[in-house]
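Ticket #4471: structure export looks truncated?
Reporter: QA, pipeline team
Priority: medium

Steps to reproduce: submit the single chain below to the structure queue and open the exported record.
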Amino acid sequence: MSFNSGQTFKEMVEAAQAGSEERWSALEEPFTRMMEEQRELLRELATEWFHDEMSDKVLDERLKALRQTFVGELVSRSGLAPSVCEKAAQAALNCFWESLMAGL
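Actual output as written to the record:
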């Protein structure tokens, strides 16, 4: 099992950028700051899941809650529509999930 958090976080930012399309200029700073704030939580999620300390169901629930947190924070910090922030957050968290799966 291998998880490269630095590479994953870089890919998450790239995925969010692609997901937000032309709105990235307004999202870049808030998203980057939020990722720094959530970095340790994401590492903990990956570690717990890789070491079988949480079930897939619990991981899914925590990722859904994290998506809501991401969207709320991005809307608050950027002033953009929730739909734009949802796309960016979902793209980033999908990337996180794919990195977890690749690490198996």
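Status: closed, not a bug. The export was complete when the record was re-opened. Leaving a note from the reviewer for reference: The mean pLDDT is 93.
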